[in-house]
Amino acid sequence: MRENDFRRIALGMEGAVEGAHMGHPDFRVNNRIFATLHHDRETGMVALTPDQQAQFIRADPDAFAPESGAWGRSGSTRVRLASVHEEALGEAMTLAWQNTVNKGASKPARKRSAGPVRRKKTRGR
Nearest to residue 48, comparing CAs of 7, 8, 89? Predict the structure, then answer.
């Protein structure tokens, strides 16, 4: 698998769009990320549940591994593109997409006001 294969599978999910997050491509549905390509373009990430992650790692430890730290413990799963088979990636990507769709739409980020800071009026002065 290559970067373009990962991208093709991700964008094949209904409603999926490509964006960017911290300088690398991400794939979203309902304004939520379900997959990313890492900076090295040799690995990606799919947003699985911890149970789903464990099943993929058990089935193919050369292709799947938890991401580092808390993200990995919560199900973010690293995919080694050179090692993963298209069918396995398609299954993992579909689950990641379904997990994200089931969370519902994310609210767009609020813009902060650049206006003046208002202070409370004090009594007796």
Answer: 89
